[in-house]
Amino acid sequence: MNYTEAKDKFIQTWGSLGTLWGINKAMAQIHALLLISPEPLSMEDVMEELHISRGNTSMNLRQLIDWGIVYKTSKAGERKEYFASEKDVHELTKQIARERSRREIQPTLKILKEVSSIDEDGSAKTKELIKQTKALHELAETADSIMNRLVNQESNWITKTFMKLIK
Amino acid sequence: MNYTEAKDKFIQTWGSLGTLWGINKAMAQIHALLLISPEPLSMEDVMEELHISRGNTSMNLRQLIDWGIVYKTSKAGERKEYFASEKDVHELTKQIARERSRREIQPTLKILKEVSSIDEDGSAKTKELIKQTKALHELAETADSIMNRLVNQESNWITKTFMKLIK
DNA sequence: TTAAACTTTCAAAAATTATTGAAAGTTTAT
DNA sequence: ATAAACTTTCAATAATTTTTGAAAGTTTAA
């Protein structure tokens, strides 16, 4: 496998993996491309490399920036903007954890709280609803704590800590 | 909020959350419904409760069974099959971790290995590709170890262990 | 063996999501 | 102030994914 094959395979794989996790293909592929690019890329560069339109590129770059994992940079004397990915995979993990917590876990916790707080009326179905949503609430809270922990630690904490647990 | 409102809200929320994580809405909703149902439900029950077609119900129940989080049961003297969810949220977590590891992490690891093993040719782009895919490989391996750990421990390990980390 | 009760399959339709591209918007240099 | 260089927006279109429903398949009882 040569460089080009490897690069394409990586971008392709990252794209499908993204899809599997609810991230659109273009967004995942742009991210993959920036992650392995030694230099920041312009919008033109991204469009050419991935064969996607200007509009698509613009929107997905924006989303990546919103997620806090891609940055805008500019080259001295150039008008265009250049884009670079966060390169440290631990930083990346932290940032994604932070965002998923904020966007998904927090709102879910709120709803699980509401649902599990309905009045107990003695019926089996109400009991079960309360019991299960409480259990999920507890689980989600634990997951959230872990994520917040990750977010507030230095990069290598993740690996170090888990390695201790694993061996 | 009464029982019916709470139930609908929970099913609705679980459905959207599923969508966000690449799980189709019907599948997530069927799972939610079974999770809070004190009794196993027939296909008819599920169809009526969620207003989805027979075909859709059948296919998604099958997928849930493939994921190992829903079981078929039968009632004595009855022809129909009944379906029940795994109720223990820790078991559920373990089973989902097991499947995601098998279906997603393992294949990704394999490709990251291949890609990161291309010949170093001294160019900056090859260097970066190798460096970043190696880093991702290491990260994915760590994630996989954690998941395997989860899978092989008793239900409460998750909470207990993480609680120690968190406080 | 037949038929009723039930489940699965799958091609077609519907719904959703992603993508395009051109017009509108913005920024910067002169 | 103008225009070139560049980016963003968004309505239209395309692609993908989900859902339907009826036919085919299966199982069980008699």
Automatic annotation (TrEMBL), chains A, B:
Gene3D superfamilies: Winged helix-like DNA-binding domain superfamily/Winged helix DNA-binding domain. Residues 28-77 form the HTH marR-type domain. This is HTH-type transcriptional regulator. Keywords: DNA-binding, Transcription, Transcription regulation. Belongs to the GbsR family. It comes from the Bacteria. PANTHER family: HTH-TYPE TRANSCRIPTIONAL REGULATOR MJ1563-RELATED. The keyword Cell wall biogenesis/degradation does not apply.
